[in-house]
């Protein structure tokens, strides 16, 4: 599958514009996200972990001790802020520019991969998930925290139209708090991945 370079460039440009304001914009939402981040990172076994779409480094406070963490982001402006945060928190992390749709790592390089609020802005999320499957060892985990439509019919009704999960793939239209609508697909456990693998969708931040 080829990368949609125009869409990827638009995503990068959008986050480059947002980068100086990102932490400020997210202040209120972050109060809710903190608990989810903590929970997600408590599930990471490591020791070699890849974080994709590290952004300004909001997950760094939750990195477990003793992990060897590599973190990538598409956007130089976001990554620069992540570098500043890593320095301020004295966190050891290998920060690199990179695109989850074309990862610059060998197969089976990591024990686990993590992404928080990233896949709704990746132009081809399926390609990104396939790349994560490639670089994570068999038996490893891909842990995702994403904005999804609420299961609560009242709250969910405010989130726009959504498809129900079904068949070999889960598909959904999400309306992320920070942007427009987008569509993503990811492999359901046992449907397309190698044996012993599964995609974990860990959180519903919509309600
Ligand atoms: C909404 S921010 C989330 C940042 C951070 N993960 C957090 O939880 O605050 C989305 C991040 O994903 C990055 N991103 C978008 N598309 C990407 C891609 N194809 N590969 C890597 N990072 C990407 C953006 O540059 C941005 O920093």
Model description:
- The chain has 207 residues and is of the alpha/beta class.
- 30% of the residues lie in helices and 25% in strands.
- It is built from six helices and eight strands.
- A six-stranded parallel beta sheet has the order 3-2-1-4-5-8. A two-stranded antiparallel ribbon has the order 6-7.
- Helix 4 (76-89) links the parallel strand 2 and strand 3.
- It starts with a helix and ends with a strand.
- Mean pLDDT is 80; it is low at 160-207.
- The structure holds S-adenosylmethionine (SAM).
Q: Which features would summarize this protein structure in a list?
A:
207 residues; alpha/beta; Rossmann fold; 6-stranded parallel beta sheet; two-stranded antiparallel ribbon; 6 helices; 8 strands; globular; disordered C terminus; binds S-adenosylmethionine
Lay out the secondary structure:
Blueprint: H1 5-18, H2 22-25, H3 27-42, E1 48-52, E2 68-73, H4 76-89, E3 94-97, E4 110-116, H5 125-135, E5 136-146, H6 153-156, E6 169-174, E7 182-187, E8 199-204
Parallel strand pairs: 1-2, 1-4, 2-3, 4-5, 5-8
Antiparallel strand pairs: 6-7
Bound molecules: S-adenosylmethionine.
Q: Quick recap of the structure?
A:
This protein has a single domain (5-204), classed as Rossmann fold (3-Layer(aba) Sandwich), CATH 3.40.50. The chain has 207 residues and is α/β, with parallel strands linked by helices. It is built from six helices and eight strands.
């Amino acid at each position: 599958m080829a990368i949609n370079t125009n869409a990827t460039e638009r995503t990068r440009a959008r986050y480059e514009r947002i980068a100086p304001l990102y932490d400020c914009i997210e202040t209120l939402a972050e109060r809710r996200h903190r608990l989810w981040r903590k929970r997600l990172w408590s599930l990471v076994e490591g020791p070699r972990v890849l974080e994709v779409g590290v952004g300004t480094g909001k997950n760094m406070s939750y990195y477990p001790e003793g992990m060897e963490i590599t973190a990538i982001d598409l956007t130089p402006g976001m990554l620069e802020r992540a570098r500043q945060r890593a320095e301020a928190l004295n966190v050891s992390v290998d920060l690199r520019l990179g695109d989850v749709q074309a990862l610059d790592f060998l197969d089976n390089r990591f024990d686990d991969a993590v992404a928080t609020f990233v896949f709704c802005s990746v132009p081809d999320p399926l390609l990104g998930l396939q790349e994560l499957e490639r670089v994570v060892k068999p038996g490893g985990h891909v842990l995702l925290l994403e904005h999804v439509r609420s299961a609560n019919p009242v709250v969910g009704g405010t989130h726009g139209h959504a498809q129900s999960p079904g068949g070999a793939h889960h598909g959904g239209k999400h309306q992320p708090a920070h942007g427009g609508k987008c569509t993503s697909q990811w492999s359901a456990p046992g449907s397309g991945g190698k044996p012993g693998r599964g995609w974990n969708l860990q959180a519903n931040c919509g309600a």
